[in-house]
Amino acid sequence: MTGSLNVLAAAIAILGVMPSALGEGLVCAHALDGMSRNPEMYGKLRTSMILACALVETTAIYSLLISILILFTK
Amino acid sequence: MPEESNNIFSNFFKINIAGELVSSLIVILIIVILSLIVGIMAAKHDPLKKPKGLLLIAEMGVNFFDNFSRDLVGTALPNFGGFIMGVAMYLFISFIFGLTGLPSPVTYMAVPLSLGLTTFLLIHYTSARYTKWRYFKRYIDPIPIFLPINLISMWAPLLSLTLRLFGNAIAGWALLSIVEYALRDLSSTLFSFIQSEWNQVFLAPLPLAILHAYFDVFSGLIQTFVFILLTSIFIGQEIPEDITLNTMERRKN
User: Fold this and answer.
1) How many CA atoms lie within 13 A of B184 on its CB side?
2) Where are the domains of chain A?
3) ipTM for this prediction
């Protein structure tokens, strides 16, 4: 069973998703800026935006992975 | 990790390997059979007629990956599109293999690790092939005192590629398991007037289908694309520019 310190450690590890969420918000905001300035680039910008979101998401996934490992490994 | 499925597999085949690796072998078998079918169709097809059906899809895929590798890697490695297409097919089919109910190969650390290791070895092989002895200069890059830092940072692509794939797959798996468990419990509470263990099955199917569509198909597609994009960029930046320009001129003449 996981002790209470392990739960606390997992909670601290998952805090790493916060800056990643901010970064994703920045990516989307700037992509929307570009889209509203020249709407003919909409398709290309959307593809790049999804790719950039997936790249930014990686750090959040690292923290999720670490907290899952802390919680579920004995 | 999904241990019950491991037991089913090892009892069925009487061999002691992880279930995810059996899934990986099945995925490879699917790709080999698909490639054989497409190869036979392409050999029998009249090249002057328009391709149809599976052959058309295969030609579009080959065209896409050839253009993709020419944009990112350049013309110095002419067969790189085939490698990228193989990796992309394997990764995408592995991601959507979780839809069949069998364990997805990407949730087993060895599978993303071996894919990342392939990219890592290719990066260093390409660098050593094109820069010869100047390859070792990368370890002492600005000044020799950077040697320990460079020796550590050389593992960064391997780690980031491996953990990105594994983390995505395992996060989707964990979230789906939690939702499935919760919906099963809720359903058996709500429909407790049905005196059978079948009262667990009413709520789960629809939300789980939507979550599967996101975490397996959409996320799998995105992660496959990110993986091949990063692989191509990492390998493409190891090829010196004059070699790329030379091969481009040779192609033109």
Assistant:
1) 8
2) 4-72
3) 0.73
